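Model the whole thing, not chain by chain.
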Amino acid sequence: MKMGVLSTEEFLIPNVCGSLVPSLKEILEFVGKNVAEGLDAEQILFKVKIIVTELLNNALKHVKNSKTFIRVSVDDKNIHIIKQDIGSRLVINDLYLCQKKPAGQKVQISQDSLNSLYAIIEGECQLKFICEESTDDKVDYGNLLEHFGLLIITKTASEFTYTHNPDTFLNTFDVLIHL
Amino acid sequence: MIKVYKEDNQSLQLDLDVVEANLTNADEFKKEAMTMIGTGHKMIIINLERVEYIDSSFLGSLVSILKHLIGLKSDLILVGLRKDVADLFTLIRLDKVFKIYGSFADVPVNY
């Protein structure tokens, strides 16, 4: 790939367990072919693999559509991954994150002895995920989380946002990896 | 999916025979593991050397098993983590809650 050139590909992935590994392989092949020379391709592909795996897991677990749309764009500065589905707004741990809240409000999604995951409200039905690591070395094994999907994406991505369109019911997960 | 490598009064050493440890086999792994543990072993050691990648669902199953074993005053030790798997543990700081060694032979005898 020439420096600075943007390559984009769209993937329509069936929401069935059997499509997980082949779809991931297809996306990784596309990214691998288009990563600029001189960059750490192994590390970049690892990040893309982590993120796409968790996005597809999310679709398999929560989306009722038969297919998930993923668009991947690569240039010499960023990899941009967008996952879209039609459905109800995101609800995590009974938190209705799209209810009207003031922009800038920080809402805790989960917390254990290791990490705290938050949503920063950016607008009506738009939020950004951030993670803060605990500074306390003591581990409370009883409260350890067993759901890591959003946490993994948040900690791997440079930016990770979610938007819900209440008119079209379109959910968009938008992930940016700075290279 | 899980094969017994070695068993004695103290420990149960298990080989996990999957390449992609993910949503498709996480629940089955947890069920299978739960039936094999809890028989009085002080430690359960799981070898992950065949696993090329592990996702959040499978990590959740491992944490669930760890919590169950701690309740039984037993311990879960992981060995044979490949780089991608180890990097994922480090990313979400699970390396701070699991005892991780290179191989079965690296686990201290008098653990």
